[in-house]
Structures are given as structure tokens and as C-alpha cells.
Write a structure and sequence with these properties.
Leishmanolysin, domain 2, 13% helix, binds 2-acetamido-2-deoxy-beta-D-glucopyranose, alpha+beta, three-stranded antiparallel β-sheet, Leishmanolysin, domain 4, four-stranded antiparallel β-sheet, 2 domains, binds zinc ion, elongated
Length: 367
């Protein structure tokens, strides 16, 4: 296969090479760039996710293939523009999976496709990042502990008409769950109506609460911001993460497998009892244990286990300030756990050059 060309910053790419008479892909190719599969940034889990992402393109989740999907019921087209000019996938299973995910009855709830770097009226081969953070088919794969093979993605493959998909084996997508049909729109992400987005620049918790995070945006978020894991030492579940000496001690942090990130302003009360030093709210790591669905207790250094009512906040004996207890993030999804292998960031295939995503790179090739 000598016709592949090198595109800088691309980790992997994929394309189908051949379809049957009805447009179903029957042969394809996935290219993984060797340089990015070794060295310190290598993560087995991230490499597996990258391959799955590319295979899904070959199997049908591709701008080259949307128009040949078979199961379009009465609809003539799979993708078309919604009222605001955003291209979406409108197929029956995708719509009902999204209704379930966002807890909305909107019958026109198509699956948003990424519009960055795409001409108006054209489609891309990825889900819109603001609405599908963490999905295996977002343009840029998140930290591997956050990447999910989510139900909406699997139902899209079902709607190609070429596969029987066992959607029950999908992984839960916490991002946006229950947030309604307007979730992730540019108008709602900045007005603090959703706890998934943040504004300004500050420290808090990544939405899965496995990591501390910093409020940041990126090119795909188009001005919306989210708490992204810090570059180092942000994993609450990593026991070896260095506590920042005296400062960590005064905030009561504990790192370890059952620790999660909480928005907290706790400071240990000082015996000298000078006028209180009130800490700012930031993400801090405390232990947690589940006592039921969406019910849990937390353990701050030097204190007892205490009930943390989801959606509320609590004070801890011996500390000034308070801890917020996230609602519907902890003790609700059985498949959200610390990863089984080392975590690091690993950009997805083609992530950094959206305009070239899914370029047909197999063209004519000799076997
Ligand atoms: C879904 O929406 C209904 C009606 O608005 C509400 O009662 C219910 O609590 C919501 N469920 C979730 C999981 O958000
Ligand atoms: C990250 O690591 C670098 C180098 O080891 C260190 O200088 C920096 O303070 C660390 N950052 C945090 C947030 O711990
Ligand atoms: Zn891709």
C-alpha cells in the first residue's frame, strides 16, 4: 500500500475502500502511525480506543457513507440541517437513544455532527464535541478513562441497516445525561445553566469526578468551557499522587482508589484561631463510599465518614468552609471507575486536522 501520504499530527486514519452494489462497505483500511504508538505517551487503553474509533468509521460512521445507510424508514436522507444550520443525523434509533440520554421528548432530536472545519451544509464524520464529550466518535478522544462507547454511537451503527447491535453492552455516557434538548448549545453553555460546563478560568473537577480539572476551552468547544484534567497529579484515585505537603494537609485531601474530586473550600481550623482564612472553592480529592444510588459518604483527612447529600453541601468538623456533593455523578454509573492501566492523553485519529478527517487514503492500492 504505497499511496498513503503523511499528514503531520495525525495519529491514525481510516477509510472504506470498497462497497457492495448497495453502498455497504465491504473492505477498508485503518492506518495507525507507528511514531505515536511508542514512547512515554503510549497507553494501551487509548490505543485500543483509537482503533475502535477508526473501525467505526470504516463500518459506516463516516461522511462518505451516511447517504448509503439502509434503515432510513420513510426518511429520504440520514443527515440534514436543523433549524440553526447544524447538520445532524436523523434516524429512528439515534433519535430515541438521544431522547433517552437527554431525557427529552423532542421528536426532532437528531444527533449533532461536528461542524468545526466543515463547510455549511456539509457533514463531518464525528459527533459534535459539546454534546458528546467523551464519546468514542467525538473528533478528539478524551483522556482514556473518560472515553465511552456510548449508546447513541451504537444505535447509529444499528441504523446503518447493516448490523445487529447489542446496545445493552454500551458504556454509559455521563456527559449531558438528563440535561434536555438544549444541552450543549452555544446559548446555554455559557450561562451556568448546566453543571457540565464552566466559565472563566479556575480549578474544579472534571465531570466524572475522577480528576481535578481546570476550566478550559478548545477549538471544538467554540467558546464553551469544561473542566479538563490537569496535566499532572490530577487523578484523585492515584495513591502515589503527591500531596502538596503542608497545603494538602490543611485542605484534608486524601488520594487513593476510592477518592473522587469535590468542589471544596475546606481549610483546617487553626488552633491559634486568628480571623478565619477563607479558601476559594476548588477541586479537591476526598474518599467516598456508596450507600445507594446517588447516595454516598465522604472521608476527609482527620475526620469521620459523613453523609454527603447529592446536590447539597456539608461542613466538616475541624474545618472551615464546605464541600459540595455532586448530584447524579457518583454512585450511579457502575462502569465509571478508575482505569485499569496508566492514563494519559492520546489524541484521536485526525483530531488536530479536522478539515482532513477521514480523507480517503486508500485510493488505488496494490495488495
Ligand atoms: C426527566 O424529566 C422528567 C420530567 O421533566 C423528570 O421528572 C425526571 O426527574 C427527569 N429524569 C432525569 C433522570 O433527569
Ligand atoms: C507538574 O510537574 C512539574 C514537573 O514535575 C512540576 O514542576 C509542576 O509543579 C507540576 N504541577 C502540578 C500542578 O503539580
Ligand atoms: Zn475520526
Amino acid at each position: 500500500m504505497k499511496y498513503f501520504y503523511f499528514i503531520p499530527n495525525i495519529l491514525a486514519d481510516a477509510a472504506h475502500c470498497q462497497t457492495d452494489a448497495l453502498g455497504r462497505p465491504v473492505a477498508g483500511v485503518v492506518v495507525i502511525c507507528r511514531e505515536r504508538l511508542k514512547g512515554e505517551t503510549f497507553s494501551h487503553q487509548a490505543a485500543v480506543q483509537t482503533v475502535i474509533h477508526e473501525l467505526f468509521h470504516v463500518l459506516g460512521f463516516s461522511k462518505e457513507l451516511f447517504h448509503t445507510w439502509r434503515d432510513c424508514s420513510s426518511m429520504s436522507q440520514v443527515t440534514y440541517s436543523d433549524g440553526s444550520g447544524h447538520m445532524r443525523i436523523y434516524t429512528p434509533s439515534v433519535i430515541s437513544a438521544l431522547q433517552k440520554h437527554l431525557n427529552s421528548t423532542d421528536p426532532e432530536l437528531g444527533g449533532w455532527l461536528e461542524n468545526l472545519g466543515v463547510l455549511p451544509g456539509k457533514v463531518s464524520s464525528h459527533w459534535e464535541s459539546r454534546i458528546f464529550q467523551g464519546s468514542i466518535m467525538a473528533a478528539e478522544l478524551a483522556d482514556s478513562s473518560s472515553v465511552r462507547i456510548n449508546p447513541v454511537t451504537l444505535t447509529a451503527l444499528q441504523d446503518t441497516g447493516w448490523y445487529n447491535v447489542d446496545v445493552s453492552s454500551a458504556q454509559s455516557l455521563v456527559w449531558g445525561n438528563g440535561e434536555g434538548a438544549m444541552f450543549g448549545s452555544l446559548s446555554t453553555c455559557q450561562n451556568k445553566s448546566s453543571s457540565f460546563f464552566c466559565s472563566g478560568s479556575g480549578f474544579g473537577c472534571h465531570y466524572l469526578h475522577l480528576h481535578k480539572g481546570e476550566c478550559k476551552t478548545d477549538q471544538y468547544l467554540e467558546g464553551c468551557s469544561v473542566y479538563k484534567p490537569l496535566k499532572n497529579g490530577s487523578e484523585c484515585w492515584k495513591k502515589e499522587n503527591p500531596r502538596r505537603s503542608a497545603e494538602a494537609d490543611s485542605t484534608g485531601e486524601i488520594f487513593g482508589f476510592d477518592s473522587r474530586c469535590f468542589f471544596s473550600s475546606l481549610t483546617r481550623q487553626n488552633r491559634s484561631q486568628f480571623p478565619s482564612f477563607i479558601s476559594t472553592v476548588e477541586g479537591r480529592c476526598y474518599r467516598h463510599r456508596c450507600t445507594g444510588p446517588n447516595r454516598y459518604q465522604i472521608h476527609v483527612s482527620g475526620s469521620e465518614w459523613v453523609e454527603c447529600p447529592a446536590g447539597g453541601s456539608i461542613q466538616i468538623e475541624g474545618y472551615q468552609g464546605s464541600v459540595s456533593c455532586p448530584d447524579r455523578r457518583l454512585c450511579l454509573y457502575s462502569d465509571i471507575t478508575p482505569p485499569s492501566d496508566a492514563v494519559d492523553t492520546f489524541p484521536a485519529g485526525s483530531g488536530s486536522t479536522p478539515a482532513q478527517m477521514n480523507t480517503v487514503i486508500c485510493r488505488k492500492h496494490s495488495l
